[in-house]
Amino acid sequence: MGKGPGLYSDIGKRARDLLYRDYQTDHKFTITTYSPTGVAITSSGLKKGDLFLADVNTQLKNKNVTTDIKVDTNSNLLATVTVDEAAPGLKTILSFRIPDQSSAKLEVQYLHDYAGISTSLGLTANPIVNFSGVVGTNLLSLGTDLSFDTKVGAITKCNAGLSFTNTDLIASLNLNDKGDALSASYYHIVSPLTMTAVSAEVTHSFCTNENTISVGTQHQLDPLTTVKARVNNLGKANALIQHEWRPKSLFTISGEVDTKAVDKSAKFGLALALKP
């Protein structure tokens, strides 16, 4: 565990990762290679039904500066320059997309033992300003996440979150969508030796008065193989098995079944990630 509370995006992250990360019903392939000069080139392909999407990402690290350039099948270019530790606890991220001239954005993150702040600003004439801040410790933290549209002069996003962390559990509470949705999540490590953990998330919408409940678990069969399962109150059941057949190279098979519509065929997804 780190000393500080982290960023606002860290509130409830462990629960979200267990419940949703690596589940998919598409086919994805990713391969990473490294040049003799240390440049990392990652090629990705994603098959969604009859649609095939691909992109190539080039990453160059020079001391504390990381430059990422990604080009996709639609000829869009996304460039991100990250300067880490320009000052203690400070990270600066500049990103822009070509040909979208209004996509340029500057983000500044600052991590302290008792606070975590992230501010981003669109580099346009009427930018959208995002601010998120967390205060507390690695045990208890309270934060907020805001967006302000200078063009219309209104707050477009207003969220708040609370997180409690103990030795083997993390509980969080989030108020989202300007107070319309309340979400509570729970993450509990059952056995550190086998990385067995359980997680649950409950979301209530005040507008529709509906609840969404998701419960999941993960277990490590051996040091290289992990299984996960998830079910929600809408009748969707998901499961996956992930095998690390070599360091950082993962093969994942996942499936989804709608228990309320058993006449429909199950959906399956495959993901292969190769790293040298």
Topology:
Elements: H1 13-20, E1 27-34, E2 40-48, E3 51-62, E4 65-72, E5 77-84, E6 90-98, E7 105-112, E8 115-122, E9 128-136, E10 140-149, E11 154-165, E12 169-176, E13 181-191, E14 196-205, E15 210-222, E16 225-232, E17 236-246, E18 249-258, E19 267-274
Parallel strand pairs: 1-19
Antiparallel strand pairs: 1-2, 2-3, 3-4, 4-5, 5-6, 6-7, 7-8, 8-9, 9-10, 10-11, 11-12, 12-13, 13-14, 14-15, 15-16, 16-17, 17-18, 18-19
| Domain unit count | 1
| CATH architectural designation | Beta Barrel
Number of alpha- plus pi-helical segments:
1
CATH class descriptor: Mainly Beta
Helix content: under 10%
Strand content: over 45%
- Which structural class should the secondary elements be placed in? mainly beta
Largest sheet: 19 strands, mixed, barrel
As for the CATH topology, it is: Porin
Uncertain spans, ≥5 residues at pLDDT below 50? none
What oligomerization state is this entry in? single chain
Order of SSEs: HEEEEEEEEEEEEEEEEEEE
Keywords: Ion transport, Membrane, Porin, Transmembrane, Transmembrane beta strand, Transport
Family: Belongs to the eukaryotic mitochondrial porin (TC 1.B.8.1) family.
Subcellular location: Membrane
Main location: membrane
